[in-house]
Amino acid sequence: MLDDKMQIAIETLKRSGVRITPQRHAVLEYLLTSMEHPTADDIYKALETKFPNISVATVYNNLRILREIGLVKELTYGDESSRFDSNMHEHYHIICETCGKIEDFHYPPLDEIEVLAEKVSGFDISHHRMELYGKCKECSETKVQ
Ligand SMILES: [Zn+2]
Ligand SMILES: [Zn+2]
Q: Mean pLDDT of all residues in the chain?
């Protein structure tokens, strides 16, 4: 499963003329394996033992390239804590307000809202974003002492 996804991603890199460095490969592999929507810092921490020369800036740079060629989506939250998602299929997110965990939520894309928004606003709508907030299972089970 991961091998397939990795193979497809590598093909995309090659087609885009992007050099596949060991660090870039590792960042991509981490993203394809992780369902956690990691931050650049999470990825950096996960890779620093294997790549002692890696820096957060390198990770960011790699993420930017991967985003530009459409392998990764960036979820911005108005601060430096962007999260990265390698699931490029249209999906929504559920976010835990207590621990910050982000899970995928599959629901048919609400295309009709875009059509309606274009009609009433005259905007040329490019996309929309919906997030659901609450308390995850683990956090709900943790009793406050
Ligand atoms: Zn939680
Ligand atoms: Zn996601």
A: 92
Paired sense of beta strands 92-96 and 102-105, if any:
antiparallel
> Measured in angstroms, how far is the CA atom of residue 88 from the centroid of ligand 2?
8
Sheet holding 102-105, edge to edge: 102-105, 92-96, 131-134
Task: Give the model's pLDDT for residue 143.
Answer: 67
Protein residues within 5 Å, CB atom, of ion ligand 1? 96, 98-99, 101, 136, 139
Distance 103 CA to ligand 2 centre (A): 6
Give mean pLDDT, residues 54-70. Answer: 95
Please state at what angle helix 22-33 crosses helix 40-47, rounded to 10 degrees.
Answer: 120
pTM of the model: 0.85
Distance CA 115, CA 112 (A): 5
Pair of tokens at residue 49: 């033992």
